[in-house]
Design a protein that fits this description.
42% of the residues lie in helices and 19% in strands. The protein has 493 residues and is α+β, with helices and mostly antiparallel strands. The chain folds into five domains: 58 residues, no CATH class; 78 residues, Double Stranded RNA Binding Domain (2-Layer Sandwich), CATH 3.30.160; 63 residues; 153 residues, no CATH class; 93 residues, no CATH class.
Amino acid sequence: MNALEKALLIKELNILIDGLEHRSLSFFEIAKSKSRLTEIFGLCDEPIFQKQILKFKSHTQPEKAARDFAANTLYKLSFRGVFLQDSLLEKALYQNADAGWAILYHAQKGWQIWLIPTPNRTALVSEWGYLENIYHWMLAQQQIYSCLQTDHELKQHALLEHQRVKALTETDLNLLIDFIPEQNQTDIPDSLNQAIETLDPSQQIIAIDSKVQHDELHAALHPERPSVCNDHPQETLVSVTLTAQENNLAEKLAKNSVPQTLALKQYIAHIQPLDDANKPEQALYRLEILDAPEISQHVDLLLYGPNVQHWQQLPIYLAEQINSQGRFIKYLVLLGTENQMQAIRLIHLFTDPYQHQPSAIKEIFWHHLQDSFTHLETLFDSYSQKATLIWNIDSYTPFIPIQLIQAQKFIQFEESPADIQTPLLLLKERHKIRLIHGQNRLNLSRTESAYPYLLLDRHQGVSWQLIQTILTQLASPIDCYQLYEAIEKYLSD
């Protein structure tokens, strides 16, 4: 096939794919286009067509397209697979928490890469997009963290490990052969004597070495992955048991005890064990401020005991707690943990017995929190503006205290029915936060302390005139996400 024929076929491919993506075709036209594409791919299996083939497979065989794409990267051996559920992806990815990456596919959103940046860290997650775009994102993270080894590097490591094991095996076998004749022969089974006699040392080495080579190469390229995560009742997999090191610290803590109180700026918090019957969990303590009992209405204060002496130098972890229906309960503040993985595990250890779960966990430092944790509104400000997100459930939406919202709708229109997960759509202007969409959601329950929300800002160029214009273009009843996306699209255009 000459260059002109290739160019014409590529042009035809682009036309066919564009038609499938952007035009309203009849079923007959769709079938005809796909049939023609299959014919072209049958004729052309050269590298010049791979990009077009990948784009087509992304529509017809998305999982296979992602697997084929990963197989042609430099990091095939670190790839954990393609998944349709993030819970299964996390289980596969965190089984070996040292390194790895995986792809999540969603029919409407596209693809997403999950990457472990450093050992025992929660995964970094790309935006949804095309395979090539999210792979470029992963390469950018690789430049920052150098977290993945290329296939060539892994194979070199496997070869060196095999050579080391081979040398050790030869030495051990020679020592064994020298040692056996000195033993009492009556203690050695006849079958073993016969086996030793029929093999000379070189044959013995070769026989064992062939097995060593296979086992060691397999072990190096496919390392045993210790189970570090247990299934969580919701989408996210998080271990809720303490590690051996934490158990040891807990036992020492039980012997040495912890202080009875802890100073939280002007407040004195009394340190109470969570569960007297479970010694390992004695490492986790509840903080109670008896002089201000109203604080416990909007936040649970927890302390990981082993680090009680230097907790102010460590990050603090903030979480939004929700019940099994997805309603906001209260915030959670955890002091004294050393890293993000430990914080995530301990927070689930606390919430699971109550059939609660964190919807998101953020990291903050004490100087940003010390003046704000005592009131729900100020704690919300610190959580939303000064804390860094490290973990969240799928389809996470943050919560806002009802006190901060001007709940009377400024523009009246018919809303679609709401459920517990439906967010409020809000507009921030000057020092007020006004309700755009969400009257039906508020009417579901007036007793909740905080509601899920999406926020627009006047500084983005959003005005009530713009909202009114967009409302006239949408069919009633109007869905919250539909209105939000229409405004976002207008702003981006």
